[in-house]
Every structure is written in C-alpha cells, then in structure tokens.
C-alpha cells in the first residue's frame, strides 16, 4: 500500500483558499471600471459646460447692446437685445446684488447666471472695463462651470478714461 502522505500536491483547502483570494482580488479590480465610466462622464460634462460658459462670456463681451447698457444711467429694465443677437435673457435685476447687474438665461441644457459689475474697473492700460461673471447651473441647480472676464465700455477711449 502506498503512503498518501508522501504524495506531493495541493489539498482541497489550499485550492479553495486560493480561489477565494483570487475572486476577492478580481471583484475589487472589476469594481474600478464602473467608477472610471462615471468619472469619464463627469469630465465630459464638465468640459462641455466650460466651453458653453466661455461661449456665453464671449457673446456678452462682444455684444454692442451690453456695452451700451453698462454706460447708461437708467438700469431699471435691462436692455433690449437686437434682432438676431446672441445675447438674450429672461430675468434682470439691478437690486439682487448691490455691486452687480444680474441676468438669467438658458443655453443648451444649462441655466445661466450672468453678473456684470456696476462700477467699472480701471486696468493698467487705463481703459475702463466692467467685470462679467458667467455661471452655468445643471438641472439640480448646482454650479457646473464658472468663468469671468471684462466688458469694455463703449465710447471710452484710453485717453478719456485716464
């Protein structure tokens, strides 16, 4: 009779233990893939929102009606966008923020908040500009992107501003 103890190999317990450990490692590794997918979706949405915010900022910076609005004295009603203008808004307030004119609009799937500083800022080039802040909000009302820039006041030259 052959002695079983002298045979070399793995016991059933060792095999089951190694399968269990391997399963735990694989399950942990596979759980990373859905997280990567969520992160990619979030980053894609964020990049899109950044581009939309920059587009809105540029439209408002270049709009003649916005430039004319910030130099006029009567800021009760906002301004009337010209026909075919890229600049539109649904709500305006000159009292919601003490330092800013406040506009609300929509762009693509985002709600957009636009604030234009009431008092012009003197830059080193002595041209007068007003700060503009653009915020994009998602359907839950969370800010997904924010950018800012400056709107040059219409009719103000460097020599007149100094």
UniProtKB/TrEMBL annotation:
Intracellular or extracellular location(s): Cell surface
Matches recorded under NCBIfam families: IV_pilin_GFxxxE
Superkingdom, taxonomy of origin: Bacteria
KW Transmembrane helix (keyword) present: yes
Any Pfam family matching the protein: N_methyl
Residue spans crossing the bilayer: 12-33
Keywords: Competence, Membrane, Transmembrane, Transmembrane helix
Protein name: Type II secretion system protein
């Amino acid at each position: 009779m052959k002695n079983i103890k002298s045979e070399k190999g793995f016991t059933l317990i060792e095999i089951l233990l190694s399968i269990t450990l391997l399963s735990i490692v694989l399950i942990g590794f596979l759980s990373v893939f859905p997280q990567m997918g969520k992160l990619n979706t979030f980053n894609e949405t964020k990049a899109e929102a950044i581009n939309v915010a920059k587009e809105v900022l540029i439209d408002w910076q270049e709009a003649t009606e916005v430039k004319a609005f910030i130099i006029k004295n009567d800021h009760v009603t906002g301004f009337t966008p010209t026909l075919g203008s890229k600049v539109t808004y649904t709500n305006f307030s000159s009292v919601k923020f003490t330092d800013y004119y406040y506009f609300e609009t929509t762009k693509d799937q985002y709600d957009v908040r636009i604030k234009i500083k009431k008092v012009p800022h003197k830059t080193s080039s002595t041209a007068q500009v007003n700060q503009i802040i653009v915020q994009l909000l998602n359907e839950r009302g969370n800010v997904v992107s924010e950018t800012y820039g400056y709107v040059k006041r219409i009719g103000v030259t460097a020599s007149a501003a100094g």
